[in-house]
Design a protein that fits this description.
Number of strands: 0
Shape: globular
Number of domains: 1
CATH architecture: Orthogonal Bundle
CATH topology: N-utilizing Substance Protein B Homolog, Chain A
Radius of gyration: 16 Å
Strand content: under 5%
CATH class: Mainly Alpha
Structural class: mainly alpha
Oligomer: single chain
Helix content: 55-70%
Length: 204
């Protein structure tokens, strides 16, 4: 079983330039985590216990009012492995949200988190949580996935904005990690087999 590497991928210490493919299951987990984070902006409580409960409530009761959004959310939450990975990412983000927001604002310099578009800030938050709390995911995967998700769900400018900010965050949070180039070209430049203690296991 693999994490963010499919067959033919490489380990975090393998030479750069080798093609790597992020796991589709983990990709759907990231998208689900993003959907939960965006939905929680309107009603999540301030305390960690309350936010943790809000995550479970949101996953069990998809947001209402947008038929296309409800359908997409239902499809994402239907994958047990994807949902598990989403829950793991959210478990990193919930107790450290204030810390991560401070880091994002320090690195971005010109932008306060509250001024960013909802999708943009939550994609960046999600990437920050994965960079800080999931060392099993190479930073190249975090970067390329953040850009992919921003391009899919954000505005025309989201991918470029997210790419620049997440790349800076990667240098801050993973200074000794393998070098990862710009992902704004749309390629997936990172992947690694999970270690023996991998929390989430993809089905393929």
């Amino acid at each position: 079983m693999t994490g963010d590497a499919q067959q033919g991928g490489k380990s975090p210490n393998a030479p750069t330039g080798v093609k790597q493919t992020p796991s589709p299951v983990r990709g759907s987990g990231r998208e689900l985590a993003l959907a939960v984070m965006c939905a929680m902006e309107s009603y999540a409580p301030d305390d960690i216990e309350g936010r943790t409960a809000a995550v479970g409530l949101t996953l069990s009761n998809p947001p209402r009012g947008d038929a296309d959004g409800e359908s997409a959310f239902s499809e994402l939450v239907a994958s047990p492995a994807g949902r598990q990975f989403a829950e793991e990412l959210l478990a990193v983000w919930v107790p450290r949200q204030a810390e991560f927001d401070e880091t994002i604002e320090r690195v971005s310099r010109r932008w306060r988190v509250s001024r960013m578009d909802s999708v943009d800030r939550n994609v960046v938050r999600l990437a920050t949580a994965e960079l800080a709390g999931r060392p099993d995911t190479p930073r190249g995967v975090v970067l390329s996935e953040a850009v992919r998700i921003a391009r899919r769900y954000g505005s025309e400018r989201s991918a470029r904005f997210v790419n620049g900010l997440v790349e800076s965050l990667a240098q801050e949070l993973r200074p000794a990690a393998e070098a990862g180039g710009s992902a704004d070209g749309g390629s997936a430049d990172g992947g690694s087999a999970d270690g023996p203690n991998k929390p989430a296991q993809d089905g393929g």
